[in-house]
Design goal:
The complex is a heterodimer of chains A (172) and B (95).
Chain A lengths: L4 E2 L2 H14 L5 E7 L2 E8 L16 H9 L2 H7 L1 E2 L2 H13 L3 E9 L8 H10 L2 H4 L6 E6 L7 E8 L2 E5 L1 E2 L3
Parallel strand pairs in A: 1-9, 5-6
Antiparallel strand pairs in A: 2-3, 2-5, 6-7, 7-8
Chain B lengths: L1 E4 L13 E4 L4 H11 L3 H5 L10 E5 L2 E2 L15 E6 L2 E2 L6
Parallel strand pairs in B: 1-5
Antiparallel strand pairs in B: 1-2, 3-4, 3-5
Classes of the chains: A alpha/beta (172), B alpha+beta (95).
Chain lengths: 172, 95
């Protein structure tokens, strides 16, 4: 078993607060840290509602076509596209602080905390991109708000299209 | 010559090629050159005002052009440019 990722309770709480603030829309963001401990959260704007966003993300044609049929608000309930300006700013801060990118997170307001087919496809596509932008391959964290009073938080590794649950250790 | 990495969503415009070459002295020139040989690529990368769209990043040798000189970032022979689509995902399709 791999070593659990240590996420302090305050950062977990911040992430859940982000998911709740955007509910019923999906939130997304990054976690960074060092030596297996998360020290920083970066909220990233979900810009899936921007015109054309679905065409330059790695959505498969069926998902992109489905998104195009929806209103901007409906799109944001079932998908996220990270604002790459936010992403760039986070990446720069991560580098300046001497941290590593550890996690890409997003919420599923209406669905379980497990990667969808879209999540798996895009994570797999991105495997070859991370090294080109000088970042390690992150884990993926899902927050489900199906039970609003008890968000379900789960961490996964996605490699070559395969999903493996990973473990989180929390401390106050 | 500049090597340009093309992400999956743009490969239909490059006949499936994951990497193409371009002769250009800046990112702006590279985009114009790519658009001449692969029509449609510019509008996917830039908005109506010519600004880079928020769901794409361009890296020159692993450095984000947003932190260099944007589209005026200069290029030299042998540079590696990566066009990087936004990280995305979402729950299962609902109809």
């Amino acid at each position: 078993m791999t070593t659990p990722l240590h996420i302090p309770q305050a950062i977990l709480d911040d992430m859940v607060a982000h998911a709740r603030e955007l509910d019923p829309y999906e939130c997304c963001g990054l976690l960074a840290g060092i030596n297996g401990t998360v020290t920083q959260i970066y909220r990233v704007t979900n810009i899936v509602a921007l015109e054309g966003a679905e065409k330059l993300s790695s959505f498969d044609p069926a998902k992109a076509a489905h998104l195009e049929r929806l209103s901007p608000a409906e799109r944001a309930e079932i998908a996220f596209v990270m604002d790459m300006q936010d992403f760039s700013a986070a990446k720069k801060d991560i580098r300046n602080k001497g941290l590593d990118l550890q996690v890409v997170y997003h919420s599923h307001p209406h669905d379980p905390a497990r990667p969808s087919i879209t999540d798996i496809k895009i994570a797999t596509d991105y495997e070859e991109i991370w090294p080109k932008i000088n970042l390690p391959i992150p884990d993926y964290l899902l927050i489900s708000l199906m039970d609003k009073s008890k968000p379900d938080i789960r961490l996964y590794k996605i490699k070559d299209g395969n999903v493996t649950p990973a473990h989180i250790r929390t401390t106050i | 010559m500049i090597n340009v990495r093309i992400p999956t969503p743009l490969r239909p415009l490059t006949k499936g090629q994951g990497e193409v070459t371009a002769q250009a002295k800046s990112i702006a020139e590279m985009i114009e050159t790519l658009n001449a040989s692969h029509p449609g690529i510019k509008s996917r990368l830039c908005d109506e005002t010519g600004e880079l769209r928020r769901f794409v990043n361009i890296y020159v040798n692993e450095e984000d052009i947003r932190f260099l000189k944007g589209k005026e970032t200069s290029l030299k022979d042998g540079d590696e440019v990566s066009i990087v689509p936004a990280i995305a995902g979402g729950s299962s399709c609902r109809t």
